[in-house]
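Apologies for my clumsy wording, but can you show me some protein sequence, whichever is easiest, together with the matching structure tokens, please?
=====
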Amino acid sequence: MPGYRLYILDESGHIIDRHDLSCPNDRAAMLRARQLVTTHSAELWLLDKRVASFKVRSQPYRGDGLGP
């Protein structure tokens, strides 16, 4: 299986973490990566090919107790 790498990025776009993923194809790797991307943006790579980018949008604090 191809060796995908998911790079977790900080607000400035610098790598702060990496996950190695063993997936049979790009689609499966993207689905798995989407599960791991929660609080930071990320990029999914296969060797020197960027497969996908994931952006996490921060929601402003509402202060009403109904959400972030």
